[in-house]
Description:
- By secondary structure, the chain is an alpha/beta fold.
- The chain has helices at residues 3-12, 35-39, 93-101, 122-137, 156-166, 196-200, 210-216, 220-223, 248-259, 284-296; strands spanning 48-51, 59-63, 73-77, 105-109, 150-154, 186-190, 234-240, 267-270.
- The protein has one domain (50-64, 71-124, 148-296): Alpha/Beta hydrolase fold, catalytic domain (Rossmann fold, 3-Layer(aba) Sandwich).
- Helix content is 30%, strand content 13%.
- Strands 1-2-4-3-5-6-7-8 form an 8-stranded mixed sheet, with helices on both faces.
Amino acid sequence: MGAAGLALLLAACALAAVGPVKGERAVSDKPIMTWPDLLTRAKPVADATVRYGEDALQVVDVWVPQGRGPHPAVIMIHGGCWQTTVAERDIMNWIADDLRTHGIGVWNIEYRGVDRGGGMPGTYEDVARAADLFLAEGGKHGLNTGGTQIAIGHSAGGHLALWLARRPALAADDALRGADPIRIDLAISQGGLPDLRAGAASVGHACGADAPAAMARGDYARTSPPEMPLGSAREIQFNNDRDHVTPPTTGAAYSAAMARRGVDVPMEVTPGEGHVELIAPDSVSWGKQRAAILAALGKAKVL
């Protein structure tokens, strides 16, 4: 896992604090979490790992709640600027374990980053293949594959979760779509980077411009959610007002772009928290996300 890469990433984006969104007040006297605050904790362990390809990165970690199944589950996608050297799937272990303790299974996808043979089309092929495998193999691990399908992703993984939700709307003969793609009902972006065109044109962003450019290869209509065909999935964004990697302005731009296309993408902004808190199990932001997942799966009412 690229813990060192994550620490460097956070240091690279130590910019001026993002101001609070209107109606929210930042807790400026409380330090935001750094990657070591999360990554040095005792790391929970998945129940199983399944393979969907020959590459060492073409695997999925399966998290299964205790008790009799089948259990509702989510498909989870990690971030890391679309680069394997920055992060791998185990940065999501803490929230995967938290969902497991709340009776929710997790299908935590690994994929080839742009630095490991991914990008366009490799990363998409991996994410699509791993997500489709959930329908074929999830039941063998006690997970309910026939209920509400939720995809959740952090940072660059937020882009991939939104892409996965739009994938069925691609042309029927599109290789990225495939013959029978999984149908996502709810896509949750955790401080995501949905706009690849904006990313490829960015200057000074922590992820740089090369990675989002490699994720599109100029084909934004098939890879970048603001420009992809509209799907049927509901989309939600969770952002934090002190996130220096994906500030609320990033999410707001996506919501505005989708509103111009007649689609409502709500965004929940938590004050006083940053990029790491989005995947920290004891954060206010994650509590909101968990509540949304439980509600969508019929496990609890929205708080």
